[in-house]
Specification:
Blueprint lengths: L1 H12 L12 E2 L3 E8 L11 H6 L1 H7 L6 E8 L4 H8 L5 E5 H13 L4 E10 L5 E5 L15 E4 L4 H12 L9 E4 L2 H10 L4 E5 L2 H7 L4 E5 L7 E8 H6 L1 H20 L1 H12 L3 H8 L6 E2 L5 H16 L8 H4 L3 H7 L2 H7 L7 E5 L6 E3 L2 H10 L4 E7 L6 E3 L4 E5 L2 E5 L2 H10 L4 E3 L1 H8 L1
Parallel strand pairs: 2-3, 2-4, 7-8, 7-9
Antiparallel strand pairs: 1-2, 4-11, 5-11, 5-12, 6-9, 6-10, 13-14, 13-15, 15-16, 17-18, 17-19
């Protein structure tokens, strides 16, 4: 079973290279085409993909170079990072964005094929690991990771979501290779398998867990932030491209910084733009990319993220997807340092925004924040017909979740939300008098 999963992952990495025509950074000297691979529905890469493209920031930066050349950008959209890596090592994509585990595979494949790549910036991150979630069917009786013993679990081998699954099972005392039947599937296939009942659980990255939960097709079993290990998405560039066209790469990173500022300054509008481009509900995009969303955006390559990459190598090695990887050699922040200038040092040490409860009223162009989940519930109770979405942070991990999908605990006068049932039960066990209540009960208590 494990060999089949590894073989399937390997096939993805070696996918045919004929899907994309044209040459990366091609041109006749006066006209240069820059090819960017991105993942529109992996919404923690939007500042290097979907949002960046919709804003036209990269094209503006290229036009401002004033070097006598005409630049064209070829945007190529993919479902995962594996085909982007395949195209990069074939010299057909110049710049790509993907999650942390695919980034490591990108580094390994580039070195193996003599086509080295480098991590040049970060898009979205969560320092606790909240970008990945394990979900089950809405009517599932599974309530804890230990309930997965002997069950079929869908994930994408070689992804950060698989890394979360492996680590979570190990911490729960389960052997990921023996105690579950792992189904190596693309996210959309896994989502269908969960709905059809051919998978008992699904471990995936953004925006799949939030999307399925919002649609009523899943409920959370495990919040990846319980691992307290950083997860992130980033930008990788071919070494030869960066060396030959450093000003173009710097233009891209300046444009990424502009898109990041736009997302942080206009989170609702940014969510609407991404929703329009991807077909995802804006409410789901905002869950991850909003003002207090699960993901924080800035391009700086923080030391915590580099350390996390180094820890991730062991997971990929155990799955026989890579050997040793020189992470320090893969990371190259000189271009983003130059692009961001004096602000880079400040961004390196900047802390993510504090967790907060938010309501998105219908017809509003801005959300409303509340100091406590109870205050949010009181507002929702009084405006139930006027709420587009309501979000609350997990009481222990800070992971934002939909208020009506959270597990609620009443502890005296406090009303506390949790992403997953196991963490709620742990809290109840440690606090006498606390108990799990329904969302309806929580609303009534807060009103």
């Amino acid at each position: 079973m494990k060999n089949k999963a590894v073989a399937a992952a390997a096939l993805l990495l070696l996918a045919p290279l004929t899907a994309c025509g044209g040459n990366a950074a091609a041109g006749d000297g006066s006209t240069v085409t820059v090819t960017v691979g991105y993942q529109s529905r992996t919404i923690n890469t939007v500042t290097a993909g979907t949002l960046l493209r919709s804003l036209g920031s990269f094209e503006k930066e290229l036009n401002a170079l004033g070097d006598g050349r005409t630049y064209k950008v070829d945007w190529q959209d993919y479902a995962t990072g594996a085909p982007i890596t395949a195209q990069m090592t074939a010299g057909k994509i110049d710049i790509g964005s993907m999650g942390d585990f695919p980034l490591l595979i990108n580094a390994a494949r580039g070195k193996q094929l003599g086509k080295p790549t480098h991590l040049v910036s970060v898009t979205g991150y969560n320092l606790r690991g909240g970008l990945n979630t394990i979900v089950t069917a809405p009517d599932s009786k599974l309530a804890a990771l230990t309930d997965l013993r002997g069950k079929k679990v869908s994930t994408s081998v070689g992804s950060a979501a698989d890394g979360t699954l492996v680590r979570a099972l190990q911490r729960a005392g389960l052997d990921p290779d023996k105690d579950i039947e792992k189904l190596n599937q693309q996210p959309a296939v896994g989502a269908s398998a969960l709905s059809a009942g051919s998978a008992d659980a699904l471990s995936q990255f953004v925006a799949w867990p939030g999307l399925l939960t919002y649609q009523g097709k899943a409920k959370a079993l495990y919040d990846g932030a319980e691992l307290n290990l950083p997860t992130f998405h980033g930008v990788t560039a071919r070494e030869d491209f960066a060396r030959q066209r450093p000003t173009v790469l710097e233009a891209f990173l300046k444009a990424q910084a502009e898109a990041t500022d736009y997302l942080n300054d206009h989170p609702v509008d940014a969510a609407e733009k991404v929703a329009k481009a991807t077909g995802l509900p804006a409410e789901v995009v905002y869950l991850y990319n909003g003002a207090h969303g699960i993901s924080t955006f800035d391009p700086a390559i923080k030391p915590q993220l580099v350390s996390a990459l180094k820890d991730d190598v062991a997971i990929l090695k155990s799955a026989k997807l890579t050997g040793d990887i020189d992470v320090d050699a893969f990371v190259d922040d000189r271009y983003v340092r130059k692009a961001l200038g004096t602000s880079y040092a400040e961004q390196l040490t900047a802390a993510p925004p504090a967790a907060a409860s938010e309501v998105w009223p219908k017809g509003a162009s801005a959300t409303r924040a509340f100091k406590t989940p109870a205050e949010l519930l009181a507002y929702v109770s009084a405006h139930q017909d006027g709420i587009r979405a309501a979000y609350v942070p997990d009481a222990t991990t800070g992971t934002l979740w939909f208020a009506d999908k959270a597990v609620w605990v009443a502890d005296g006068d406090k009303l506390l939300p949790f992403v997953a049932p196991a963490t709620a039960k742990t809290y109840v066990a440690e606090h006498g008098g606390a108990r799990v209540v329904t969302y309806a009960d929580a609303l009534e208590r807060a009103s």
